[in-house]
Prior knowledge:
By secondary structure, this protein is mostly beta strands. It is about 10% helix and about 40% strand. The strands form 5 sheets. Strands 7, 11, 14, 17, 21, 22, 25, 26, 29 and 30 form a 10-stranded parallel beta sheet that branches. An 8-stranded parallel beta barrel has the order 16-19-23-27-32-28-24-20. Mean pLDDT is about 90; it is low at about 10-30.
Amino acid sequence: MSGTRISNLFGGFTVLVDICCLVIGGFAVDTALALSGLGTEEDPWRIQSLADFNEFAADANYWDDYTRLMTDVDLGGRIYSEAVIAPDVNNFKDGFQGTAFTGVFDGNGYEIINLTINGGSTDYLGLFGYVNEGEVGNLGIEGGSFRGNIAVGSLAGGNLYGIISNCYSTASVSGGDNSGLIGGLLGFSYAGIVSNCYSTGDVDGFEEVGGLVGDNFYGSFSNCYSTGDVNGVWYVGGLVGVNYDNVSNCYSTGDVSGLGFVGGLMGRNGDIISDCFWDTDTQTHGVTTSIGENLGTATNVAGLTTTQMQTKSNFTDAGWDFVNIWDICEGTNYPRLLWQIPMVDFFCPNGIDFFDFSFFAGYWQEGNCGASNDCDGTDLDLSGTVEINDLRIFVDNWLRDF
Length: 402
């Protein structure tokens, strides 16, 4: 089943180019683009409002350039029927038919909020329909829901040779009765690189259904996790539905259910998975195996109890990096990616409260903060002194729930 799905995805691939130029005297002159910036790495297009975002999403001329998000964008109040950026334009043909996203999109730590897509039988659904050799990073999909047929994910329906990093989603993702390639973050990733990402929303589909990605073919996943419940029929995994490449240093904690080839981590593994774990205590549908069908190699892959999943040594013993990538509040939570944690959350448990403020206040107007004395991280703007601008940064994060 999975082989048929993935071959159809690429067999009919066609790129349609929107021609937005004037031809004068044999010379092509680009029409003016409205966003601030030049679309270069040094001066990217800047999305500073909902109007800017709509301009970017509607014009494919932006999609092969550098773009940076400068604010959260709330898309609530509208229900989309196709991907917002780089949608499939002909659902009656196999494979993606449209203009793919081939540029670099830097979310800059901001979020796309309340995006709802109800595509029915439409394929390639997500914020991005199809990423082809592009890059998407530092972006959150907060809330909302996504429903479609083939290749459905909150961030992107399909990722071909692209790089996805430091992204997350809290949205729910679902497919219909014959749906496939359904994932919490990505519908599928083919020869792509996905790292430092997570999803927390529930995922539901028919086959090749995963908490983070439906199918991973010839690409790598590392330092990722999924916590949402996952339900399907065939090839259902808490993390990945079907895997045919390398997955490492990942975990899943959601309740997983399905009819055939169901695993706490993967429905099917056809290549390599290493140093990955899943929570056995959260299972209510009788799932007892990490991988529903293992045709590859699984090294140091196991189900752990919730207590074990909240114990740091079980991960450091597996070689996980708790200096540069991960952190954990032992006994209260699972591992989290360091980039998730706000700089003013100085102590466990998770969240910013009066204990953090008291610690910050103890360094008030401390000077000479630098390489040899970082003032225990309270010099938030790295100016060398703990002063009013650091307080502004602290207040901006006050009582946020992480």
